[in-house]
């Protein structure tokens, strides 16, 4: 389905959540997960756990650092996180409890520019 191979960098405060997402990403065709400290990735994925106190701050720092397009995987989004997502141009938002391999793969490829853009409101459903 997807022909382009995309390098992804995963960021999270919670190491368990990070490893869980890395494992899911590595199982997807066309996606390569960069090791920590390895050059720049085509897409950054930020895992925002339920208990991450500084998730909006992390999102803000990543967006301001002029990094790769950003995909957010969140357990739940409060008003502060939703405002940050809208303000900083996050490409896709995936709810952790509704995460499937297909949704994750489409979000990464969409952020990398391999797919037609879908409005953020459609990505939230």
Write the layout of secondary structure elements.
Blueprint: E1 6-12, H1 15-26, E2 31-33, E3 43-48, H2 55-64, E4 70-74, H3 79-87, E5 92-95, H4 101-111, H5 120-123
Task: Describe it.
- The protein has one domain (about 5-125): Response regulator (Rossmann fold), CATH 3.40.50.
- It contains five helices and five strands; from the N terminus they run E-H-E-E-H-E-H-E-H-H.
- The protein has helices at about 15-25, 55-65, 80-85, 100-110, 120-125, and strands spanning about 5-10, 30-35, 45-50, 70-75, 90-95.
- It has a five-stranded parallel beta sheet, sandwiched between helices.
- Strand 1 (about 5-10), helix 1 and strand 2 form a beta-alpha-beta unit.
- Helix 2 (about 55-65) runs parallel beside helix 3.
- The model has no long low-confidence stretch (mean pLDDT about 80).
